[in-house]
Amino acid sequence: MLIVQKYGGTTVANTDLIKNVAARVAKYHAQGDQIVVVVSAMSGVTDNLIKLAKEIMPLPNEREMDMLLATGEQTTIALSAISLHALGLPAVSLTGAQAGIVTDGVHTKAKIQNITPKRIHELLNEGNVVIVAGFQGQTIEGQVTTLGRGGSDLTAIALAAALKADLCQIYTDVDGVYTADPRLVPGAKKLEEISYDEMLELASLGAKVMQSRSVEFAKKFGVVFEVRSSLNDNPGTIVKEETKNMEDIVVRGVSLDKNQAKVTLVDVPDKPGVAARVFKAIGDANINVDMIVQNISHGSGKPATDLSFTVDKADLLKAQKVIDGLKKEISFGQIIATDNIGKLSIVGVGMKSHTGVAGKLFEILAREGVNIDMISTSEIKVSVVLDLAKGEQAMKAVHEAFLGFGAME
Ligand code: ADP
Ligand code: ASP
Ligand code: MG
């Protein structure tokens, strides 16, 4: 079998853990499997590199950030190869570029354009374990790029697709995907399986166990993968295409995204083209917008609106700068920016065929005395923005009501 195994930052946080990874790889290798290992930077390393750059200036050049961040994974590939050598196994480490991962040129959020896994195949055929640096690639012009936070997941899934791997395993520090972050909700239960669409929603709504772009990629190319722990042999969670019986469960999971920030433009003139102008500028700056809320005020005075949207906390400064640049052109009142928000979501493909889910969510929040700031829904999720300070309390109550023992479905 050809197996792609990805080991996350906490699973390679020190040399003992890297040796633990090597021992697991050796076990598979002994069975005659061909193994491609994708590793993240050691836990905390990427955060620390970002911190160093920001000590120098708040918005560092993104090409240089990629140059900097790519070093994190380069440390772990070499240490992992050395750990395998120590066990007597042939192993070769490769950077993203050496592994043939070609991306576009959008620094810090590059998209994989194609993978030429010729070198990987050669090394595997010579009997090596191949260790690839996650999270990084190279443009055709030779610029180093990174794939967005959590991007080693994407490296693993994309390699599994390109290599037509028999198995893709994502090793992390929890036993699988749970009904909620097990660190925040002690009663959370491990799921045996989850559909791509549910995993995608949970991931993009704050369940950082998988990078959302990697799940999108897996869905597009039909890569079935397993999320499991590097510290035991328990079966993990299988992520795959939806099956009919998955719709029996209304809410599969609850997530809380603490990484969002909200920008409000106050008193925006009510005329065509304003939203287009704002979000074109935000899009041109490569900032992802999540929720958008606008409603014309029909009170006294001339019609105007408040326009609110949410972005990743990391993009807040950049978004404010872009909006500031539009002030003359659009003449709105003021900008209010806050990162004191949380986004709580419930996700499940069963919502397609069940009613009353949103109402029940709002009732629980009311009971908890939690005010709802923004609401957005899709076919398989309901999200609300609320005060960050109340986020965890609300999440526990919502999980208990929808997924706790004795919860009614
Ligand atoms: P890695 O370094 O292995 O990529 P991450 O820290 O990115 O690991 O993701 C694993 C973490 O995701 C877990 O430690 C857990 O706290 C968090 N998490 C959030 N939501 C969930 C969920 N629904 N199920 C499992 N883990 C979750
Ligand atoms: N090291 C990168 C990060 O911390 C990529 C990853 O861990 O997946 O975001
Ligand atoms: Mg991760």
- What does the average pLDDT come to? 95
* Structural class computed from helices and strand pairing: alpha/beta
Secondary structure tally, helices: 12
**What's the β-strand tally?**
20
Q: What oligomerization state is this entry in? A: single chain
Helix content: 25-40%
**Ligand inventory:** adenosine-5'-diphosphate, aspartic acid, magnesium ion
Estimated share of beta-strand residues: 25-35%
The main sheet orders its strands as: 3-6-2-1-9-11-12-10
Shape field: globular
For the sheet with most strands, the description reads: 8 strands, mixed
The value of Rg in angstroms is 23 Å
> How many angstroms separate the termini?
40 Å
Low-pLDDT residue intervals, each spanning 5 or more residues? none
Brief summary:
Helix content is 34%, strand content 27%. With 409 residues, it is α/β, with parallel strands linked by helices.
